[in-house]
Amino acid sequence: MLVGVLMIAILARVFVSYANPAGGGALTAFLYQVTEPILAPIRRIVPPVGGFDWSPTVAILLMGILLSIFVR
To answer: Is the pLDDT score of 2 beyond 90?
Structure first.
């Protein structure tokens, strides 16, 4: 269940970053605090390319794989 909540938080962070790139607000700060420990290590391995941050995509894919392994 935790993996599912983290996946939703990452998707919400992506949506918030596109909707309000300047940031701000308590919800935005909360989403960044929850997801940054997951995305920062991935960002070190897969840096942004052409201004696009691939770390949320990689994180969701990895969590999906973990979820499918643990559900079995």
So the answer is: no
